[in-house]
């Protein structure tokens, strides 16, 4: 395979996403948005969620950010105060822009075998000028996502957003520029993936065998990373030479493939003040968000008296 990445990124840190409770009865493994990694500009939070029937994320508000939800197994219903509703099936994504205000619910399907509904949710900051835009949803169905197979079939990449080995994603789904790849490497396989210079990037290992990432800090150095760990890469904005990116492989002695998501985003030069579901640029704006939500004004008018149908299915 020809060298696509001549300057592998440094590995700044790796951290284990420990399980914690969230929502109503849901369990999440959070690797961005914790004391170990408060944020990774422009990313605010990454949750690997597991939601059993009877649990979920009932009616709650947002302002000032986008969420990207990637469903891995099961099904999730969503519904908001503007009458938008739909279902995510395995491999589907939803990009939600909260903008000036949205109130919605995200609830799991009741799987016949009682199994949990598993996926990723990534919170992405919105540029200051878009904090108060109109809310919107954009869905990407599994069958719409192009994929590419490389290294004699030992590597499969779903190109959710961005470009990989000449294959481009079908559309930009978020306002904030983000690249997003789902990578599965069979034992003995190897992959190289470029990342735009100066963008923040990370890889989260979803399942399977350990993934070995090249550490650009020292020539030839590698780091073995296991399931539920997030690898945070450094970026050298002053680095002019070579293609900047990530090199990963799975050792041929592994008994199963390693699967990870590789995500990067364009950094923003703006303050971030977050309180729960409100992400703004100042303390005053956060305070105003609470006032607007409680008084049903300035984007939250439709929250007055609204209750989602799917939220009513919660087991009390």
TrEMBL record:
Where Fe cation binds, per the record, is at 60, 62, 104, 106
Report which superkingdom the organism of origin falls in: Eukaryota
Cofactors needed by this protein, per the record, are: Fe cation
Per UniProt, the cofactor note for this protein states: Binds 1 Fe cation per subunit.
Transmembrane regions: none
Q: Output the Gene3D superfamilies linked to this UniProt entry.
A: Jelly Rolls
Note the InterPro entries from the entry: Pirin (IPR012093), Pirin_C_dom (IPR008778), Pirin_N_dom (IPR003829), RmlC-like_jellyroll (IPR014710), RmlC_Cupin_sf (IPR011051)
Q: What CDD domains does the record point to?
A: cupin_pirin_C (cd02247), cupin_pirin_N (cd02909)
Question: Any idea which GO molecular function terms this record carries?
Answer: metal ion binding
- Ranges of residues in domain Pirin C-terminal: 181-298
> Which keywords belong to this entry?
Iron, Metal-binding
- Which Pfam family is an annotated match for this chain, by its short name? Pirin
UniProt domain Pirin N-terminal: residue ranges: 27-124
Please give the PANTHER family that the UniProt record associates with this protein: PIRIN, PIRIN-RELATED
Question: What does the similarity note say?
Answer: Belongs to the pirin family.
Q: What is this protein called?
A: RmlC-like cupin domain-containing protein
Give the species this sequence originates from. Answer: Apiosordaria backusii
Q: What is the lineage of its organism?
A: Eukaryota, Fungi, Dikarya, Ascomycota, Pezizomycotina
